[in-house]
Amino acid sequence: MKEPKWKKATEEEVWQFVGWHLAKNGIQTILVGGAVCAIYSDGIYKSGDLDFVLKTYAEGKLTETLESIGFMKSRGRHFIHPKCDKFVEFMYGPAGIGDDIQIKPDEKKIEGQTLYIYSPTDCIRDRLASYIHFKARECLDQAVLVAQKFPFNKRKVKEWCVSEGFPAAYDDLIKKLGK
Fold it and tell me: Which CATH number goes with the domain that contains 49?
């Protein structure tokens, strides 16, 4: 896997480079959070970090693998690369969106390795989760960016908003989409 041009690297390039090296070393992860929105919005939205959920336990091997590609442990779960303006962060799974932990991520084959990422539908739900639980209005806008570019499971999003106790979030999404 070719190293990205770090100063101009997109979230997708950083994800593929880091994720590929982790997968090659037996560490399975799912990309979640704002970086997924950045990828699906083709860079219209920018994220300063990449959040990975670990599907496999790999504490020592994780640090070793990241150091081998130039990342250094910063604080807690954060790793930084001296040439990259984005940091990577790792959390133990399972991946969840609100109370839903039955997440089936999309799979992407990259140069012989399988990488995992939230589906567009789950990215929309994830962004709506921040809108609902943290009152982050900008996260509604991020959900709209993804919903404008990808078909998504409207019923699943609507039912999830209801189960989270905020059905109006779905209505807000649809209203912003103009549908």
Answer: 3.30.460.40
